[in-house]
Write a structure and sequence with these properties.
Layout: H1 3-8, H2 10-16, H3 36-42, H4 45-58, H5 62-65, H6 67-75, E1 80-83, H7 93-97, H8 106-128, H9 137-162, H10 177-184, H11 189-206, H12 223-236, H13 240-248, E2 273-277, E3 307-310, H14 312-321, H15 324-330, E4 331-333, E5 336-337, E6 343-344, E7 352-354, E8 372-376, H16 377-390, H17 394-407, H18 418-432, H19 439-445, H20 449-455, H21 472-478
Antiparallel strand pairs: 1-3, 2-8, 4-7, 5-6
Helix pairs in contact: 2-4, 4-8, 4-9, 6-8, 8-9, 9-11, 9-12, 11-12, 12-13, 13-16, 16-17, 16-18, 17-18
């Protein structure tokens, strides 16, 4: 998808949204109607595109992809510390780091609210696209697939984070009691996963392969992205054969020969990339709001806020494996020189920073040109290896793990048994996907969270921390229709 188009898309939702249904916390503002004249202006290919571009635009926002998301997924885990200055809490980032958070935390509210805003935009698109009779039918079919992919993407983030959540599958009507209940009633985790799978299967049927998109549409959701996300959805449910089946359908991708090249601007949307949130830097062309800045080096000679500093535990994990290639592409060290010649002096406040979010062209700017890599081909290989191993196909799984290891300059795994290979794959995910927002969820789904957190000086409470608290504002607003997660 053209990055320039993304920036304009938020303007569309100003005209599409009304304030007639009061639900401040979800901020799911329904579109009861667009005037005949307004709809006629949108009744063309450009108008159809604008409805879906508005969804992509939401993922640039602070409350969905930036500081709060970094805190909940990275700082809370064992791969990063709060960082910054000791006295700068970052709102609630010190509490996330200590696993001492509760349902009033602003980060949880941001993530919940941001993704329901994205879901609302998807529902807007799915409502209006069929009404655009002058737009190309093939284009509308593809855009419908993109909207369903993005809705599924947001629900996957929500269900991993909070467990069961409300399923808002259409634009609500003001004053409709059933729609109010829809907005405020949590569904079970299983129901949410089923809804995600339905959306992704519909997206698969409608979307083209990545290479079918024109250059102006680079970054849009593709058939490969939908299969990869569906494989990941099945991974979290331990539906191992379905993981393999979907991984096998992710075709046309390959590993980037040099791992470090993935995270440069020149490596965005490359042959390994399956789905990325697209950022663009420069005046009036925002990227992901302060995503790079909040994690940039802090202090004299630095350029950012210094949050989410890689933990000593992560550094040690790289060193224990002899994995210098991925370590040096993942972590910025004090007293080092970056790939663009920038010197990180001894005067910066923290010893380590996140290299994967570094922007050479817009260092320190509010909005940079760094993308968020959400799905890469390397993860597809690791998902396939994990699923095959769990089904007892251990010998056949090993080559897929070795592909990822060898790209990082590491020798073939020495693991032979199912149990040893399971641990090897989990370790490989940690090193390969470090600081890419998966570690916390990987620890929970594999049952490693309590021991991993203890090793990092944190207390993970079994029966509580497997999910985050539902924001207190939502529970209050639901007036008994939804209840809080256990022990919060």
């Amino acid at each position: 998808m053209n990055k320039k188009i993304i920036i304009l898309s938020s303007l569309l939702l100003v005209s599409l949204s009304t304030q007639s249904c009061r639900n401040d916390f979800l901020e799911v503002q329904p579109t009861e109607a667009i005037s005949t004249n307004d709809l006629s202006l949108l009744n063309n290919d450009a108008g159809a595109n604008s409805f879906v571009t508005a969804i992509y635009s939401k993922y640039l926002d602070w409350n969905i992809s930036s500081f709060s998301w970094i805190g909940v997924t990275t700082i809370a885990s064992d791969e990063a510390d709060k960082g910054s200055s000791p006295g700068d809490t970052g709102g609630d980032k010190n509490l996330l780091d200590a696993l001492d958070f509760n349902s009033t935390g602003g980060s949880f509210q941001d993530i919940w609210q941001g993704h329901y805003q994205a879901i609302n935009r998807a529902n807007q698109a799915l409502y209006y696209l069929p009404l655009l009779t002058n737009a190309n039918s093939d284009l509308k079919a593809r855009l419908t697939g993109e909207a369903k992919f993005l809705r599924a993407f947001s629900y996957f983030i929500l269900v991993r984070s909070f467990g069961g959540v409300p399923i808002v599958d259409h634009v609500p009507v003001a004053g409709n009691d059933a729609d109010r209940a829809m907005l405020l009633t949590r569904k079970t985790k299983e129901e949410v996963y089923s809804f995600i799978e339905s959306d992704l299967n519909a997206a698969i049927a409608a979307l083209p392969q990545k290479n079918a998109y024109a250059a102006a549409d680079i970054g849009r959701a593709s058939k490969g992205a939908a299969h990869a996300l569906l494989a990941k959805v099945h991974l979290y449910q331990k539906n191992w054969q379905k993981v393999i089946d979907n991984c096998n359908l992710v075709t046309g991708y390959s590993l980037t020969p040099n791992f470090a090249d993935i995270y440069k601007v020149s490596g965005e949307n490359n042959a390994e990339s399956i789905f990325e949130i697209q950022g663009k830097g420069g005046a009036s062309q925002p990227g992901i709001q302060q995503y790079s800045q909040t994690q940039g080096a802090r202090g004299a000679g630095g350029w950012g806020w210094g949050f989410a500093t890689p933990s000593q535990s992560l550094v040690d994990a790289f060193n224990d494996e002899g994995d210098t290639e991925r370590r040096d592409a993942t972590i910025i060290f004090r007293n080092s020189t970056l790939y663009d010649g920038r010197v990180v002096p001894a005067t910066v406040e923290n010893p380590y920073y996140n290299y994967k979010v570094y922007s050479s062209n817009f260092t320190g700017d509010d909005d940079s040109d760094a993308n968020i890599r959400y799905l890469r081909y390397a993860e597809v290989l690791l998902m396939k290896a994990e699923a095959m191993n769990e089904l007892g196909q251990t010998a056949a799984a090993i080559p897929f793990l070795n592909e990822v290891r060898n790209r990082a300059g590491l020798p073939n795994t020495t693991a032979v048994s199912q149990a040893d290979l399971r641990i090897a794959i989990w370790k490989e995910r940690r090193l390969e996907l470090a600081l890419e927002h998966d570690r916390w969820f990987d620890l929970v789904r594999t049952g490693q969270a309590q021991s991993a957190m203890a090793a990092n000086g944190k207390t993970f409470v079994v029966g509580k921390h497997e999910v985050f608290p539902i924001p207190a504002s939502f529970i209050s607003e639901s007036k008994g229709l939804s209840s809080q997660n256990p022990n919060y």
